[in-house]
Structures are given as structure tokens and as C-alpha cells.
Amino acid sequence: MKPLTDQFGRTHTYLRVSVTDRCNFRCTYCMPKKGMTWMPRANLLSFEEIQRLVAVFAQAGVTRVRLTGGEPLIRRNIDRLVAAVAQTPGIQDVALTTNAQLLAPLAQSLKDAGLRRINVSFDSLRPERFKSMTRGGSLASVLTGIDAARQAGLAPIKINAVLLRDQNDDEIEDLVRFFSQWSDDTELRFIEYMPFQARWHQGVAAADVQKTLRARWTLLPLRESSGSGPGVGAGPARTWRIAETGLVVGFISPLTEHFCASCNRLRLMADGHLRTCLAHEDTPSLRDLLRGGANQDQLDRAVRAMVLGKPEGHRCEADGGTVFQGVMTSVGG
Ligand code: SAM
Ligand code: SF4
Fold first, then answer.
1. Does residue 120 line the site of ligand 2, with CB under 6 A?
2. 122 lines ligand 2 (CB under 6 A)
3. Could you tell me if the CB of 25 is within 6 A of ligand 2?
4. Is the shortest distance between the CB of 240 and ligand 1 below 6 Å?
5. Fewest CB atoms within 10 A around its CB: which of 35, 129, 176, 216?
6. Distance in Å, CA 207 to ligand 1 centroid
7. Closest CA to 11 of 252, 310, 313
8. Atom of ligand 2 nearest to the CA of 24
9. Which domains does the chain have, with CATH numbers?
């Protein structure tokens, strides 16, 4: 079977699947406080539909799947979906991105179902600030969830921090010190804030975070490795090891260092639309094709046509350009 290659020569082997646009948090950089309109439940892909579509992508060369959202752990029996995806011929790696609030009781069953790794959003070590940035999240529950994931062997654990100017940008060093306790299986990544729909915040450029880190520690550049520790599957992250603490830190800088030229990812939205690029809305809906009775070949052709239409890149800049279209939670962050 031909690989999923676009007109710019990029081959797509990585699929992110948003399993719901809903969430038990309302992070200030991700959602407005009020006025979110959720996808009607009937529009969400069922587990069976996700499974069928993953099989189409796997046949076309996708080997890695990440379940995300919204918050994937609020979808009931998510471990069943993990198992179905993990058992799809061709899929070699299933990972999940979560806020970890509900992770503690689920970590072991997710691991048993075939989940290999998790990424956790984590923006503050201060309970009150954590609560206000997530609009209701509990730092203690999230820490317990991360611990349960570690006990279950879901490693490496990637901690994703979004830094916002004058909100949590004073915690860079605290975050490094804290996660350095688990430098053998944990990586800390700083993600640049991306404006969706509107610019609610000022983000912090990766270069500024690095400057803060270099003022205190020595950063040793790392190459992506194929082993099992931090730094694995780095994707668009550029990674360094902090010489003094051993912690691997990564920087994902979609605004200040576009990585569009090497983008190998596709996003299946919770309602079955395919996003070939965060800044581009594709049609038609794969869900409608599925529900209309399309067979594997027809689905394959539809996916290939959308991949061919993938734009060269986005035009969003740190202080200008366009904002991304849609909301992160339905697109699948
Ligand atoms: N609820 C899960 C979580 O928070 O990990 C998964 C979905 S969330 C949309 C996925 C990732 O997107 C999180 O790491 C979050 O920090 C990030 N994110 C959300 N909105 C963002 C934005 N405007 N800019 C950059 N990253 C964002
Ligand atoms: Fe929910 Fe994740 Fe968005 Fe926070 S970043 S509101 S946890 S989807």
C-alpha cells in the first residue's frame, strides 16, 4: 500500500485522535470560561467507528496513534478503545494525552490494555494557581495520577507545560527542580501558547525559556533516540538534558520555530473530520462517509485526497499572523 504522502513530500505515520471535545477542566489558554458549544453526542465517533478509521490509516502506513481530546479519560471505558487501537494490525505505539485528574484509578488498566506512554498537561506547582489556571483542577489529584502512571510503567512520562506571561512564567526553575526527581522516566516540555479563535494570553517564546534555564544550568543537546527513556518519540520537540540534574527538557515552538516542513501528523477530530494541519479545516467528514456505508477503499481514497490537500504550513506568529481555526479540544491538542 502506498504511504500517505502529501504534495510537499511529507509522509504521515502519526495520527492523533480526539475522542471527545469535552473536558473536566477549563484551562484558560484552551477554553473560554463560558460559551463553549459542545459537539452533539450523536456526532462523536463511536469506539467502533474510531477503530475502523484507525484501521484505514494503519493500512496506509500510520504506525503511531495518540488519544487526546478534550479530556480522553472522561470517555467511559476508554481502556476498551486503547485495546482496540493497540490490536489494530500495523499500529506499533499507542499513547495518550491527559490532564491526569482522573488517571490514578485507570493507569493500570490502561497499561494492561496496551497503552505505552502518557503526556500530562501541567502548568503550575502551586495549588491555588493550578486551580485557577485549570478553572477547578486539583494539583493533588494530578500528582497522584502521575504517580500511578509511573507505578504502572507508563513511561516515559512527558509533562507538558504551557507558559503564560505574568501567570506562571515564574515557575520555570521550580518545574525543572521538581521533575528532576524522576529524570530517569520523566521529561518536561515547554509548549508555546498557540492562539485559537482569539489571543487571550501572551505566551513565552521557547528561546526565552531556554535563556532562563541556561542562566542556571548547562543544557546538553540530545538527539532523538530509539530506546525507552525520555527523549523518545520527541516529534517536533527539541530536547536537551540538564547536565546538573539529568532531566530532559523539550521545547515545542510552533510559533517561533515552525516545524511544518517535517510535520508527519494527522488529526482525527472527535466528530470525524480530518485535520491535516492545525491551521486548516478539511472536509468532508469521514464519519459521514462511514455512516453512509463507505468501504475501506472509499475511506482510503477520501483520506488520501485530504492529505494531498494539506497546506504547506501555518501562518501564525508569536505576535501576529493568523490564529488557528477551531478550538483545541475538538481538533485534538
Ligand atoms: N486534556 C488533555 C490535556 O490537557 O493533556 C488533552 C487535550 S489538551 C487540548 C492537549 C495539550 O494541548 C495540552 O498539553 C495542553 O496544554 C495543550 N494546549 C491546549 N491549548 C493550548 C494552546 N492554546 N496553546 C498551546 N497548547 C495548548
Ligand atoms: Fe481540558 Fe486539556 Fe484543554 Fe485543559 S488543556 S481545558 S485539560 S482539554
1. no
2. no
3. yes
4. no
5. 35
6. 20
7. 310
8. 1
9. 14-157+254-331 (3.20.20.70)
Q: How far is the CA of 328 from the centre of ligand 1 (A)?
A: 7
Asked if 238 contacts 251 with a C-beta cutoff of 8 angstroms, the reply is yes
- Residue identified by cell 532562563 is 212
C-alpha cell at 39: 459537539
Say if pTM beats, i.e. exceeds, 0.90. yes
- 88 within ligand 1 shell (Cβ under 6 A): no
Tell which atom from ligand 2 comes closest to the C-alpha of 30.
3
pLDDT tens per residue across all 333 residues of the chain: 789 999 999 999 999 999 999 999 999 999 888 888 899 999 999 999 999 999 999 999 999 999 999 999 999 999 999 999 999 999 999 999 999 999 999 999 999 999 999 999 999 999 999 999 999 999 999 999 999 999 999 999 999 999 999 999 999 999 999 999 999 999 999 999 887 666 677 889 899 999 999 999 999 999 654 444 454 444 667 899 999 999 999 998 766 666 688 888 999 999 999 988 876 776 678 999 999 999 999 999 999 999 998 888 766 554 555 555 555 555 555
Yes or no: say if 273 and 331 are a contact pair by the CB < 8 Å rule. Answer: no
DSSP structural state of residue 31: S
Q: What ligand has the least distance to the C-alpha of 134?
A: 2
Residue with cell 540538564: 242
Distance 30 CA to ligand 2 centre (A): 6
**120: nearest Cα among 147, 97, 153:** 97
- The 10 Å Cβ neighbour count of residue 307 is 21
Q: Are 35 and 26 in contact (CB under 8 A)?
A: no
